[in-house]
Queue: 2 jobs
Job 1
Amino acid sequence: MTGAFPRTVERLETELDEGLFTRGVQVTVDHGGDVVLDVALGDDGLGRPLTRDHLLRVYCTIKPVTTLAVAALVDGGFVALDDPLGPALPDVRGLDGGVTLRHVLTHTAGLHRPMGIEMEAVRPEARRARVARTERPAGWRLSVDAAYSEYAAWHVLGWMVEALTGTPLRDHLRERILDPLGLDDTWIGMSPGAYRHNRDRIGVNVDLRDRHGYPMLFERTERICCETNPAHGGYTTSANLARLYRGALDALGGRGGTLDTSAATLAEFCRDARGVVYDLVLDRECPYGLGFMTTLQHHAFGTAPSPAAFGHSGNVGASFAFADPEHDLAVGVVFNGLVDHQVAFMRRQALVRAIYEDLAGPGGTPGGEPAPRSRRRFFRRRARTGSDP
């Protein structure tokens, strides 16, 4: 299923041959409801051939699963976007002062501390207490100041879901989002049994930010795989990521589907909900939807996606997925090579451009952005970019 995507596959194969930016990659493209590309190349981070069935940790790219669960609760009238969340979660100090669901979803609530790497040093049973006692920075202006929340905000959303539904988050996401969409290869917290069943097909990311590189073997441990971490702890495949966004496109288009959310509510989540403002954590000016990255050009996806496209990235940009309603397109990509921000951003823009050009056919340039003269020159270009989830 690669013949119709010569630019895309050539780019991936060249990058793997060089061995500087990743060890393996999965890419899935769904166009108009048909999977037109579904490929896995390279190795799984452990020296074994990477397959389409391998599971990889995708970090913040998993956030939209919980976002969709929240959208369904809003649509059902269980919670309103502009209601204060403090009464539902009175132990969370960061919600004091009228923090609403809208603030949390747009990363304007001041919940960007602590960061994920800090929380790894905290005992799992003590993590909620650590987040709950963290207050907003002094002088923080709700709805005005922006700072991407890698960890705390999506855990707050998870606790809210549990409070409203009376169901553990892992079970709620499985019952209401993952199973209805057929995302059988996606987990946000495996059970011990699921971990034992899937362990042999769990690959790892490889940190390539120094000359040696090392596999992130902790990603295969039972503790990490079984932790319910809606912020950056999901395991999935590129095919499941594309299917997630296909489900969102079907719901937006009123084509039925299995998401329990109206098209109007979902559309509100998938368009800009905060203006183009400086984000303290991402270190760039960008807009945001309600839990989704929107106007993707501002998030280093390049100019090929239409202004209506929405999605999310993770692991310093290594994984990403998005939907483009104007092109009826859903894409999932998982690189298992962790590189610096600038290289990740350039890699993403080049791959996204290649996908659109291949879809357009010979001579087509749907994004209107010319291809670079040479791949090496492209990856040496400098860009003013900051952090990425």
Job 2
Amino acid sequence: MWTPIRTADGSWTLRNDELGQACHSLSGAWEQARLRYAEPCRVREVALERGVVRLLDIGTGLGLNLAAALAALDGTGARLEAVTFERDAEVLASARALVDWPSDCAPWVARVHAALVGDSGLGLKVHVELGDARERVTAAPDASFDAVFLDPFSPQVAPELWSETFLSLVASKLASGGVLSTYSASFPVRLALARAGLAVGRGPRVGTKAEGTLASRGVPLPGLEPRLERRLARRIQGAS
């Protein structure tokens, strides 16, 4: 069901053969994990400010996004405390079977894969929640998160994880000063996050993807195109 694919930066991803989609961009899985998630969510900055980063990771997959967050903490002495949701335990087993990772990500991937089977070690605590993310996020602790990585499969194959109801629940878990990042730049996703009370901005260009979406409570974000900002404002106010 899960086919390994070497991406352009030398790191691995896995393709779900049933859904016909890979877990990461083929232009570079490790690049995507760092530039789409760890960096724009200010993982290192939060670590330096607070000494601990609390992360909600939706779509564990190979654990690469978690590994990028852990790498961002290198040298800070801070601790990463992550809750991660994954529907299919088979993808975790398939990821742990992969070898010959590039040197810049191999140590972080190894630490995350150990944590996913219960051996977190110093500076890292990972709690894996297997099952439907809609149920898991409802049952998640009331405490909020400094960063949210929203990385499920696309709305075409997993529409339930892009619904306004689900995104509102996810937004409710974001702490003041926290940042959510996702690869989706769709208007309905941005509208749902804005209606949930978050400021919405433009995520960085990564690989072949022109931009994603950032959302925050209290952190200035790169602005959306003015016409899109006006459209969002009209929809939030209930205008046609």
